[in-house]
Design goal:
globular; mainly alpha
Length: about 170
């Protein structure tokens, strides 16, 4: 299991997050509110959130039937067991841990970070082609602890991690 070590001073989180590109998160927020209230994703919402994370997933995630999406996302949202939540979402076609983390973030924005290669880079971890649930649990714990230590939300931490990697990649080119 990798160690997740912040690659920049913790007091720079807010400054980096403030430089994160402005996105129109209104629709994602709207979907998340509906999902949290209802307790599951509709197929349309599921495809939309998956495509927000990575457009390339659309053909695969579109193959999931409505009943499967409702049952599987409902099971993930209903449990409080972190490993079971992730494992349930991974049963859906075209969903890996990064996309599942986005589905969780959307439904529970205060409780989950979005797993992203840029965020991993800012934590000193090389991206992988596959992420086991144990990796996700370690990442989740590390992000929650880091956000708490810094006194910021998980989304603020997410933005800072992404932005730091983006700025670092510009310096390399």
């Amino acid at each position: 299991m990798p160690t997740f070590e912040l690659d920049f001073p913790i007091d720079e989180i807010a400054v980096l997050a403030a430089r994160f590109p402005a996105l129109d998160d209104a629709r994602l927020h709207e979907v998340g509110v509906a999902v949290a209230a209802r307790g599951y994703y509709t197929r349309e919402e599921f495809i939309e959130v998956c495509a927000w994370k990575t457009v390339r997933s659309r053909p695969k995630v579109s193959r999931n039937a409505e009943a499967v999406v409702v049952r599987t996302t409902g099971a993930a949202i209903a449990t409080e067991d972190e490993a079971a939540r992730m494992a349930a979402l991974l049963e859906l076609g075209g969903v890996g841990v990064p996309t599942a983390s986005t589905l969780l973030y959307c439904a529970f924005p205060d409780d989950y970070p979005i797993l992203d290669v840029r965020a991993l880079e800012s934590l000193g971890v090389k991206p992988r082609s596959q992420y086991p649930v144990s990796f996700w649990l370690g990442y989740l714990d590390a992000c929650r602890a880091l956000a708490q230590r810094a006194g910021v939300s998980l989304r603020t931490l997410d933005k800072a991690l992404w932005q730091h990697s983006k700025e670092r990649s510009r310096l390399r080119t």
